[in-house]
Amino acid sequence: MKKTITTFLVLASVTGMAQAADVARGKDIYMKAGCYQCHGTVGQGANTGPKLGPDPLPLESFISFVRNAAATNMPPFSANMVSDAEMADIHAYLTSVPKPPARKDIPLLNMK
């Protein structure tokens, strides 16, 4: 049993599971790194950058895209600029953004 727990902890730390992503820290990093300038303050997208939240790409794909964005107008962010742990925090922030209400639930859009 002890060997199983030790193995799990080693694997968890290697895969980044040992430290949970921090939504508040993710929002702070998102703002400080300037992501909001192209993607909006809650990742809603704009004419300069696509929508990122509330359903971002899976974390591994998200990090890969940010690191290798050369084919787009977005500058790539190396791990020296934004670490993988910080990327996980940003991803947690984008995941935490509530979905907008459905059109049918917005009275102004349903007036006759």
Provide a brief overview of the structure.
With 112 residues, this protein is an all-alpha fold.
DSSP strand (E) fraction?
Answer: under 5%
Structural class: mainly alpha
- Determine the number of helices (DSSP H or I, runs of at least 4 residues): 5
Radius of gyration, in angstroms, nearest whole number: 18 Å
Instruction: Describe the sheet with the most strands.
Output: none
Q: Low-confidence runs (pLDDT<50, min 5 residues)?
A: 4-15
Please report the distance between the alpha carbons of the first and last residues: 66 Å
Mean pLDDT, rounded to whole units?
85
Outline, from the CA principal axes?
globular
Strand/helix succession: HHHHH
| Helix content percent band | 40-55%
Count of individual beta strands: 0
Task: Describe the fold and architecture.
The protein is mainly alpha-helical and 112 residues long. 45% of the residues lie in helices and 0% in strands. It has 5 helices and no strands. The protein has helices at residues 2-15, 23-32, 36-39, 59-67, 84-96. Helix 2 packs across helix 5. The radius of gyration is 18 Å and the shape is globular. The chain starts with a helix and ends in a 16-residue tail after the last helix. The relative contact order is 0.17. Residues 4-15 have low confidence and may be disordered.
Keywords:
45% helix, mainly alpha, 112 residues
Q: Secondary-structure map with pairings?
A:
Elements lengths: L1 H14 L7 H10 L3 H4 L19 H9 L16 H13 L16
